């Protein structure tokens, strides 16, 4: 178990570019062990000091997180590769935030995370910030999730034409004259299951980026055009876990850049003990 004030962690698009597969060793690192390596619970320190622990990020982001939000995902890049990262799952309990399970390996934009406010259409970067999770989507008529769900059909597209009135909206083909868009039912498996990340949605600002999803990766080691991608089994686990009644959020970005978010406290809470536990 990793503990700090209010935080407890229990163990328990078209242009995409390939890189080398993730080491099997990293897949087996429990959340407690990884956070301990980052925050100083062990004698081993990662060479890049910008890879802060998920617990430190939650503490620093506390002023931004609404009290009614009781589920939180934290997505951060690896210090050695800006296109790779981990997703951590947390639930808020009476005693504070508690980690759930193991970190989930993920891929992000081919150009890494954009600093807050700097994401632009077509730049290959994943936006940084704290975002709502709008709805789940996929190819089947239904999935096992409590989240609002929409089935993707051959007629469904997501507009990324910055000049179209429907920019960054899910519409049917006949509802727009947009010259550029994402097909929501692709010829591959990437959108078989997905989540809409509520980036640049309310309001929509032209050219600041569109179609930011959490979806299945094409394969491990292949970055995205700006989305967050992970293994199908891990995404299904997330869909099963999420509860809209708990107002789930995702905090994502490079820890070096997240302090630029308005309202970021800058507080650091370093875990002072690390032992294995079970949820």
State the separation between the terminal residues, measured CA to CA: 10 Å
Strand order of the largest sheet: 3-4-5-13-12-11-6-14
How do the helices and strands follow one another from N- to C-terminus? Answer: EEHHHEEEEEEEEEEEHE
Strand content: 25-35%
Question: Residue ranges: pLDDT <50 for 5 or more in a row?
Answer: 1-5, 8-29, 31-52, 269-279
Q: Count the DSSP helices.
A: 4
Helix-and-strand structural type = mainly beta
Could you give a short account of the major beta sheet?
8 strands, mixed, barrel
Gyration radius, rounded: 18 Å
- Please, how many domains? 1
Q: What's the overall geometry?
A: globular
Helix content: 10-25%
- Number-wise, the strands total 14
Mean pLDDT: 83
Walk me through what this model shows.
- This protein has 279 residues and is mostly beta strands.
- The chain has one domain (2-134, 197-260).
- Helix content is 11%, strand content 28%.
- The protein has 4 helices and 14 strands.
- It has helices at 24-27, 31-39, 54-61, 232-241, and strands spanning 2-4, 7-9, 71-78, 81-93, 96-107, 129-138, 149-151, 156-159, 170-172, 181-183, 193-197, 213-216, 228-230, 249-252.
- Strands 3-4-5-13-12-11-6-14 form an 8-stranded mixed β-barrel. It has a 3-stranded antiparallel β-sheet with strand order 9-8-10, with no helix packed on it.
- The longest helix has 10 residues, at 232-241.
- The radius of gyration is 18 Å and the shape is globular.
- Residues 1-5, 8-29, 31-52 and 269-279 have low confidence and may be disordered.
């Amino acid at each position: 178990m990793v503990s700090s004030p209010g935080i407890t962690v229990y163990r328990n698009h078209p242009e995409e570019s390939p890189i080398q597969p993730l080491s099997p060793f990293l897949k087996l690192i429990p959340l407690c062990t990884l956070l301990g390596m980052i925050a100083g619970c062990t004698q081993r320190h990662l060479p890049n000091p910008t890879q802060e622990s998920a617990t430190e990020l939650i503490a620093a982001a506390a002023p931004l997180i609404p009290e009614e939000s009781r589920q939180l995902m934290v997505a951060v890049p690896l210090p050695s590769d800006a296109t790779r990262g981990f997703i951590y799952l947390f639930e808020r309990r009476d005693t504070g935030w508690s980690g759930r399970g193991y970190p989930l390996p993920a891929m992000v934009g081919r150009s890494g995370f954009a600093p807050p406010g700097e994401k632009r259409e077509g730049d290959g970067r994943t936006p940084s910030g704290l975002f709502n999770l709008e709805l789940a989507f996929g190819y089947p008529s239904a999935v096992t999730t409590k989240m609002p769900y929409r089935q993707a059909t051959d007629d469904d597209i997501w507009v990324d034409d910055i000049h179209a009135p429907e920019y960054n909206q899910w519409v049917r083909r006949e509802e727009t004259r947009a010259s550029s868009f994402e097909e929501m039912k692709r010829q591959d498996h990437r959108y078989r299951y997905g989540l809409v990340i509520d980036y640049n949605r309310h309001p929509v600002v032209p050219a600041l980026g569109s179609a930011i999803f959490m979806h299945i990766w094409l394969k491990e080691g292949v970055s995205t055009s700006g989305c967050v991608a992970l293994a199908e089994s891990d995404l299904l686990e997330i869909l099963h876990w999420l509860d809209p009644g708990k107002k789930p959020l995702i905090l994502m970005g490079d820890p070096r850049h997240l302090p630029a978010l308005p309202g970021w406290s800058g507080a650091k809470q370093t875990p002072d003990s690390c032992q294995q536990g079970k949820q």
